[in-house]
Amino acid sequence: MSAGEASRDRVLLAGWLLASFALSAVTDWRVLAAAAAAALVLLARGAARHLARVARLVLPLSLGASAMGWAFDRLAGGPGPGAGTLLALNLRAALLAFLALAVLARVNVLRALAPWPWATRLLVVALAQIHALRLLAVESRLGLRSRLVRRPRTRDVVRGAGAITGTLVVLSSRNARDVADALRARGF
Questions:
Q1: What is the residue range of 20's domain?
Q2: Chosen domain end from 76, 111, 146
Q3: pTM, entire model
């Protein structure tokens, strides 16, 4: 691990955090579009893969929330938010997600946070929780698939979501308690 790589990682992380904070306050879709174009130019390596993930994971939720907000405002007798407002909302969500994916693909976060042990510990705990929950999600999907003769449909997944959510909460609570006990035993 060279000092240059670690400082580069810290600069990228700091730039990402500052850009995310600044872009969160922007409400003009034209400024967001210009920022998105700049981000695509600056972070071109792997951009297609990151954009595909944004389109698959972020845009459906953002577009759905926009449609629901518009519909509820119309039902309440309001004029509904303007097209510029909805465009800015969805563009901001997509841009922030793209920046996060593109920067985190280039940065070794553990190396960047090495000078701050408390931040490293917090990151390790968060990564451990993510890993445990991801394993549970994969195992529950495989379990659902093994119980059905056909591929599980959305209805099947929704039907089993309550039990999986309860298990996720119990597992998260147990993992958090185990980590807290381990940290306390080590004097933190």
A1: 3-111
A2: 111
A3: 0.71
